[in-house]
Structure formats: structure tokens, C-alpha cells
Amino acid sequence: MDTITSGEFRAFPGVEDWHPRVTGAFALFRTGTFAVGAQLFGAIAELAEAADHHPDVDVRYSTVRVRLMTHSAGGLTRKDAALAAQISDAARELDIPADTGRMLDVMLAVATPDPGAVVPFWKAATGFAEVRDGVLFDKDGRGPLIWFQPVDKPLRGRSHLDVNGPRDVIEKRLDAALAAGGVIVDDSHAPEWWTLADADGHKVDLCPWRQ
């Protein structure tokens, strides 16, 4: 089955609760209790069996997080969009809201002049899979993304966290981080991203998702 782009995924009806990324399409549903989360999981399981297409589902005390991806195709497909819409319908029938404001990606960014020279080391050390050139991801979908940022000159040991999410969420995180003592060390790429540092100089990039 042919893969589709994030934009093509978003064009499908009924997928407003979902955020398509390179690692799949994600949604978070606020269930409030574990029992309600179990109900939603049961509904998702029935839909998945009927479609013969199985998502990753993380059931917590008050939330259920779902990731859809067609592993055989190596990306998102129409099957993912169709099942996403069905899962959202099931959540609405159970009166369970989607919580789009809490959908964030945390990535470890490794700055290097030659990603090809260091990616094999990181793959071996972490056991992660390369989901596209220069991007590693936990095969079980639990760990953060690791991406390799090309730079013009060698830098020793330069790595930082990236926090990605909806623009309104990221802008709130920016304000909160500054109020907590952080400083902006580079806003030359704003509003695409801001680089912040804590009191010890450790850096975080806050990056709104590109639609």
C-alpha cells in the first residue's frame, strides 16, 4: 500500500484529533479514569481486529494514547486515516474528549558535520531503527526521537533537546520557561523555533509543528 504525506492524512474527514508525524499519527484521549480507558481500549481493539490493522495503544490512569502507522509500508497510509476516524468516533460515542493540547514530541538533537559518520554508533548503542535519513526512533514506540542536525563545523559533544508541539502549546511553554528563569539564546529562526538555555547553559529548542 502506498504511503501518504502528513498533509494528505490531515485532508481525510474525521481525523481532527490526530497529529501525523514521521513516526506515525498520534492522538491522546482524556478518559479521566482507568475503567473508562479500558472501555476505549476495548472499542479500539474491536475496530483494529475488524480492519486487520493494529495501533500502539498506551492506557494510563486518566489518558489513552494511540499511535497509528502501517509498518509494512514504512509510513502512514489510507488505512491509518480510516482507522483514526473510526477511533475518534468511538471516543465520541463514549463521551471521551481528545486532548490535542498535550500532544508533544521530545527529541534528542545531535549536532554533527557528518550525520552518516555517527548514526551507526547511535543505532548500535540505542537499538533504535532509522525511520528516515538521520532520524532514529524506538522500535517499540516508547523512547524519544533522535535526530542528527547537520552543522557546518565540528562541534564536540553538542546535543540538546527539542520539544515540538502545536504552536499555541509551544508558545505557552516558551512563556513558562522564561518565567522559570530560562533565557532565549537564539531567536534568529523564530517563529519556526526558539533556542532557550537554563541557568547552567543547557539548551532546549522549542519548535511549533509545521502544518
Structure write-up:
With 211 residues, the protein is of the alpha+beta class. Helices cover 30% and strands 29% of the residues. The protein has helices spanning 6-10, 34-51, 78-93, 115-126, 167-179, and strands at residues 19-21, 24-30, 56-59, 63-68, 105-112, 129-132, 135-137, 145-150, 159-165, 183-186, 194-197, 203-208. The strands form two sheets. An eight-stranded mixed sheet has the order 6-7-8-5-9-12-11-10, with helices on one face. The chain is globular.
Q: Could you name the key traits of this structure?
A:
211 residues, alpha+beta, four-stranded antiparallel sheet, 12 strands, globular, lyase, PCD_sf, Pterin_deHydtase, Putative pterin-4-alpha-carbinolamine dehydratase, Glyas_Bleomycin-R_OHBP_Dase
Q: Distance between the terminal alpha carbons, to the nearest Å?
A: 24 Å
Number of helices: 5
Using only C-alpha atoms, the radius of gyration works out to 19 Å
Question: Total number of β-strand segments?
Answer: 12
Main beta sheet strand tally, sense and closure: 8 strands, mixed
Strand order of the largest sheet: 6-7-8-5-9-12-11-10
The helix/strand order is HEEHEEHEHEEEEHEEE
Low-confidence runs: none
